[in-house]
Specification:
Blueprint lengths: L4 H10 L5 H12 L18 E2 L5 E4 L8 H4 L7 H12 L20 E4 L13 H17 L5 E5 H14 L3 E2 L12 E5 L5 E7 L4 H4 L6 H15 L2
Parallel strand pairs: 2-3, 2-4, 4-7
Antiparallel strand pairs: 1-3, 5-6, 6-7
């Protein structure tokens, strides 16, 4: 065991084989890539989170894309969802570049950390409950190491459910009377016994299904992140 808790966590995530269905799928995808990615070496392993470890904003997505993160080896890298998110992060000065292409593209994040409740690409982007439960300890451990988080931006209903679970397990209590429910643009306030406040913001996931249909636009996404930046004080 290393004396660096981040290094230990990353090693355990990358070597994880808890979910046989996901292990089989990520390898199958790598062995049978579409024509545009033929000849590329796929990562085909679980993904750790990526970003600033002193971040005040934590972004919780769903899972790596089969030909995105599963190919490139970095969270939110190499697909249309990554480009949509990075364009917004760059707009607010949270990313050094407007695109996330590969692990060695030089992209740096400032004040934001990207993660997901599932670390392997699931078939049809639909993880099972057991797979979510198997992966959850990694998310929980990441959050415990991210000591400066003030805002959690949850992308999609699964990310939102994971974020609520995460905050509750960390001792945060929702302040409002109404039960937190996923809705684009929703804002909930959580506090712990020490008086620390964390804001939970909800957004539609920047999947192609949402962005190509206009369900999620750049303007809608920017409004969520404008609020996140303001609340985080970055």
């Amino acid at each position: 065991m290393s004396s660096d808790p981040w290094a230990d966590l990353v090693d355990r995530i990358v070597s994880c084989e808890r979910c046989p269905r996901l292990v089989e799928y990520r390898r199958k995808v790598a062995e049978n890539p579409p024509r545009r990615f033929r000849g590329q070496q796929y990562w085909a392993r679980p993904l750790p989170g990526f970003g600033d470890r002193e971040a005040r904003i934590l972004v919780v997505g769903l899972a790596p894309a089969a030909h995105g993160g599963n190919r490139t080896g970095r969270m939110f890298t190499g697909d249309s969802s990554a480009d949509f998110l990075m364009r917004t992060l760059h707009y607010f000065g949270l990313a050094s570049m407007p695109r996330s292409v590969s692990r060695d593209d030089g992209l740096q994040l400032r004040g934001v950390f990207l993660t997901a409740p599932v670390r392997c690409a699931p078939p049809e982007n639909r993880p099972t409950r057991e797979e979510l439960e198997n992966c959850y300890p990694y998310l929980k451990e990441e959050f415990s190491l991210l000591r400066n988080v003030r805002v959690v931006v949850a992308l999609g209903a699964i990310g939102f459910a994971a974020a609520k679970h995460l905050l509750q397990d960390a001792g945060f209590v929702h302040e409002g009377r109404k039960r937190p429910e996923f809705k684009h643009g929703a804002h909930y306030v959580y506090r712990n016994a020490e008086g620390r406040t964390v804001h939970l913001l909800a957004s539609y996931h920047p999947s192609r299904q949402n962005t190509n249909t206009g369900r999620l636009t750049d303007a809608m996404f920017r409004r969520v992140f404008r609020k996140a930046v303001d609340l985080a004080g970055t």
